[in-house]
């Protein structure tokens, strides 16, 4: 079920919690899904665009990535554990990030193959594995997003998108040494917020 983008119509209190709970319980109506998609789509498109960066953005449509992530979430909503406001958005962002990470690692993207941007995600490891690691992933995302943007952007480019320091520096119009210094500082801040070295949990 993939609703067409529409203007969001939030509940009076500004919360999507009732619709999320109905979705998890298997009682969501088509209207519920449309409202949820309309509510989260703009934020997810901005997020996907930021993760793609200027080079991948030229080749892959962030809206397509968001729609792929949405389809997977709809299919797996029964395994989602609602933990309060923002928890569904965090889960959606995990799916978006998985796709962008996989796209960045595909050689066919550099060859201009449009198919490389479609269904670009590793096979689902299964609901039990996802649930076992979802809390860790949410913590990684939340602590990364808490960094100042100047550090967050270069850390994302290096450790999430897997881009070389030289490529990051070129895209930002900065010296590689300056970018390396920002990455080190950003990683130190991220480690302080996360409680351990997050880079050991990611492929760089």
Descriptive keywords:
single chain; 204 residues; mainly alpha; Arc Repressor Mutant, subunit A; 2 domains; 64% helix
Order of helices and strands: HHHHHHHHH
* Main sheet attributes: strand count, strand direction, barrel closure: none
Oligomeric state of the chains present here: single chain
Structural class computed from helices and strand pairing? mainly alpha
Rough outline: globular
Strand content: under 5%
N→C terminal distance: 35 Å
Explain the overall architecture.
This protein is an all-alpha fold and 204 residues long. The chain folds into two domains: 1-137, no CATH class; 146-204, Arc Repressor Mutant, subunit A (Orthogonal Bundle). It is built from nine helices and no strands. It has helices at residues 17-24, 30-57, 62-75, 87-104, 107-110, 127-145, 149-160, 165-172, 176-194. α1 crosses α2 and α2 packs antiparallel against α3.
């Amino acid at each position: 079920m993939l609703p067409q983008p529409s203007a969001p119509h939030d509940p009076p209190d500004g919360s999507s919690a009732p619709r999320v709970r109905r979705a998890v319980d298997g009682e969501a109506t088509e209207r519920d899904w449309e409202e949820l998609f309309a509510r989260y789509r703009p934020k997810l498109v901005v997020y996907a665009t930021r993760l793609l960066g200027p080079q991948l953005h030229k080749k892959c449509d962030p809206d397509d990535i968001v729609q792929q992530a949405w389809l997977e979430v709809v299919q797996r909503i029964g395994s989602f554990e609602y933990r309060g406001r923002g928890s569904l958005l965090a889960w959606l962002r995990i799916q978006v990030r998985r796709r962008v990470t996989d796209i960045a690692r595909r050689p066919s993207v550099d060859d201009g193959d449009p198919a490389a941007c479609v269904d670009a995600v590793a096979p689902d490891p299964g609901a039990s594995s996802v649930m076992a690691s979802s809390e860790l992933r949410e913590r990684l995302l939340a602590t990364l997003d808490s960094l100042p943007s100047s550090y967050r952007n270069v850390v994302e480019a290096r450790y999430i998108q897997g881009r070389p320091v030289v490529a990051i520096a070129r895209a930002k119009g900065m010296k590689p040494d300056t970018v390396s210094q920002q990455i080190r500082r950003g990683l130190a801040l991220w480690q302080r917020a996360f409680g351990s070295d997050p880079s050991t949990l990611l492929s760089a």
